[in-house]
Amino acid sequence: MGTITNSHGVSQAHDFGAMTMIGHEDDRGKNRAERIEISLRTNGIDPGKAKAQAQAFVDAVPVKSFEKDDYVKGGIPNAARMDAKDRTTLKGLLRAGLAAVPGGYDAGDRLEVDYVLSDLGYFLFTNIDFAAVNKRRAGMRPAIEPLTPAALFNLILESRADMHLAAFYGGDFITTTANSALVRWRQAHLFERADRNREAREQYSELVLANSPSIQDVIDSGERSFSEFLKLLDKAQKFKTWLAKATPDQKLVSQYIEALKADTWADKAPVKALRYFFSLGTGCADPTGGMVSGAADAFLLDRFLKGWRPNHFVDDRLKPFLKGES
Q: How far is the C-alpha of 26 from the C-alpha of 221, rounded, in Å?
């Protein structure tokens, strides 16, 4: 695996990829066994032994692909692309890598990272002082090759691969210092995100479901059965869809309130006119039915024309379930 870099004028686009070894430029293997045989011969193994060892290896070890679903759904390069698409994650990983590579430094909150993603790849923009880093690397004994944006970007892919390979094979996690730094940052970031999500759910429960017991409490106490809970769950699909789209970095309570305040097409002028004509038509047909007309306007039109909002499930389904009212 590696980072592929293509120059476009003065800019460079980076993308993650995987390569298949085909042998030697003058001796290309036709299949996997021949490619391994060529590699063994190139590294000094006797040709006769190389062929036997290559075939034994192919017979014993099934082929797996970094780009397919063998280690992670969608492939390891695609998993690394998902990391790079999230700007917070991209910044955190590059900061961790920059601090861990020889000659690097901890840029702290001063680090600026952004990108433009196109069909050509990631155009990376950052204020990392590569000149200072490479001056220190050149002064080391022995001197170390210059650090480039592509090399730093590639740490995201390498650390991803290390994680998935160790998890798949259940082996000890042995990797480079830089890759280890990125893996450590990922794990810490996951716990931090999980803590924020848990706090958001707790705040939501305290404010929106005040004075209501939890689902676990009402089931454990026998007030509700598990079969009743499954029925409630069947009615929760729209709510779960809304919850899944909630932004993790924003307060859940705030998003819930915004969803309740959000304008819908029912608040537009044509629908307000529809309300008026609905009430007017009902009143003309039966002048004594004004109260019924008003109720229909408030209940039917507001309910159905405005569409679904998260409080519909909370007020009509969840709260009655928790309080034993339905």
A: 76
